[in-house]
Amino acid sequence: MGVFANLRRFLTKGNAPADLWRFFGFKSGPASLAYENAYALVGWVNRCVRVIADNAKGVPVKALRRRRERGGKIRLELLPETHSFAKLLERPHPEEDFSSVIENTVTHLMLRGEAFWELEVLEGRGKEPVWINVFPPQFLTEVKISGNRYDSFELRVDTRKFSVPGEDAVFFKLVNPKNPWRGLAPMSAALMAAESDYNAQKFNARFFDAAPSPAVILRFEEQSNVQRLTPEDRERIGADIQRLYGGVGRQQGSMILGPGEILESVGAQVKDMSFASLRRWNRDEICAVFGVPPLLLGNVDNANRSNSKEQRGMFWQETMLPLIGDISSLVNRKLAKRYGDDIVALFYLSQVPALRQAMGALFEWLVPATTNGIMLINEARTEYLDKPPVPWGDQWWHTGTDVPTGVEGEDTDPVRGILTPASAKALLEEWCHDTICRIKAGAKDPVNAFPCGRQAKKAAKKYSIPVQEAWNLARAIFGELALTMLPASPLVGVEAVFERHIASLPADSGVAGDV
């Protein structure tokens, strides 16, 4: 008896391998549907995880160097493509790029609350890794702690076991209140809703497969000459009904009631069970746990252009930005610092389309601050826009009354007419086309790409509007281009600047002056 008691105590402490439980017919997890199974079998879970992972991998990541200048200011500059850290971010694995690494990482975090990178270092290369190997967290068999630090990670891949030192690993985790060294996944909180949805789908499928509601009921009245039905009679009559009314695949059932037999339903009718309502409740529960608006899952009920933008913006503010911030922080502390204390990996959130509305609000005060001499272009780029400095950003450009550098004085005599929304839209589209053409022709800075003084003067004559009004609009466009353009990729984000201004135009009233 003591042997069995000790064995039971050993097994209940979690020492038994999962394969042993499966051998005896038991499930090793706390529920019948868990984690990766839910991702594979429940559409809401799959879509929520994919939405988060796809948005995360769409954020560009660049390698930069931090320089401290006189006066204590920090300046960021892009590393050349030949730098080893820039090469790693470009090709972190022979079979993947860095966006795929981020996608895998976020997927594991959502399903398991953990993600694991092995930094593969070659002898003679110091601490600089040459590859990043991403392993599913379920491959981790043990996490060893020493001195309040991760000492090593024990992994098992198929039949191979190996250990990764803590200094050669990046271990991502979401906060687990019960264990500070391990993560807790959103999937844990969504598990019950996912299992309920999965079971509802299984029941619904079995309903059509097994046909629990008979297609034909044959009943003999008590006044008939039939006194009773033998099993042979029931089988013969049932076979005839199945042949005539069984339908495709003979899935439709039949019921034969003898004299005096009554069919009475005591439970809820299957037709009265609302699978749609149940699945909507499960969907809302899963979406709430993962922080994904139903709109992003394809549910367009009660959605319009206005609240669609708002939902996407809230999704990024409440779900994506904290997640990207945690990943960025750990990547810089555990990976970028191996190349030097001045090396950083910057996630370019300003390139995210869903954040452009917030960027528009930011530009409402950022552009005047730079064009009126309150701050330098590079100060605004590095401190507010997460962008590297540019060659034209270390000098004061112009005040509110001066024209940009390199442009002659402009004619300030007003021209009759007003700038209507339709006129402004046509004008902005024309400016966008001209700017893109100049950049393709070789312009790599805002002065040459968008000479706002000349653009304003031409627009005033063409659209019969005051020079000052055209100049104010051109100066706002020029300020945004000066803040957002990249010398290495000047076309990136140019269309977004003009689209943001077009989207902010009021509805056209159709007054005179339209074009």
**Cα end-to-end separation:** 95 Å
Number of DSSP strand runs: 11
Average pLDDT rating: 76
| Approximate shape | flat
Element-level helix/strand string: HHHHEEHHEEEEEEHEHEHHEHHHHHHH
Annotation field: number of helices: 17
Query: From the alpha-carbon coordinates, what is the Rg to the nearest angstrom?
Result: 33 Å
Provide a compact summary of the structure.
The protein has helices at residues 2-15, 18-23, 36-41, 43-57, 84-90, 98-112, 186-210, 231-245, 275-290, 305-334, 356-371, 377-384, 421-440, 446-449, 452-463, 467-484, 494-503; strands at 61-68, 74-78, 114-120, 131-135, 140-146, 149-157, 160-165, 169-173, 216-219, 254-257, 343-347. It has 515 residues and is α+β, with helices and mostly antiparallel strands.
Describe this entry's structure for a reader.
The chain is of the alpha+beta class. Helix content is 46%, strand content 13%. It has helices spanning 2-15, 18-23, 36-41, 43-57, 84-90, 98-112, 186-210, 231-245, 275-290, 305-334, 356-371, 377-384, 421-440, 446-449, 452-463, 467-484, 494-503, and strands at 61-68, 74-78, 114-120, 131-135, 140-146, 149-157, 160-165, 169-173, 216-219, 254-257, 343-347. The strands form four sheets. A three-stranded antiparallel β-sheet has the order 2-1-11. Strands 4-3-8 form a three-stranded antiparallel β-sheet. A three-stranded antiparallel β-sheet has the order 5-6-7, with no helix packed on it. Helix 4 packs antiparallel against helix 6 (98-112) and helix 11 crosses helix 16 (467-484).
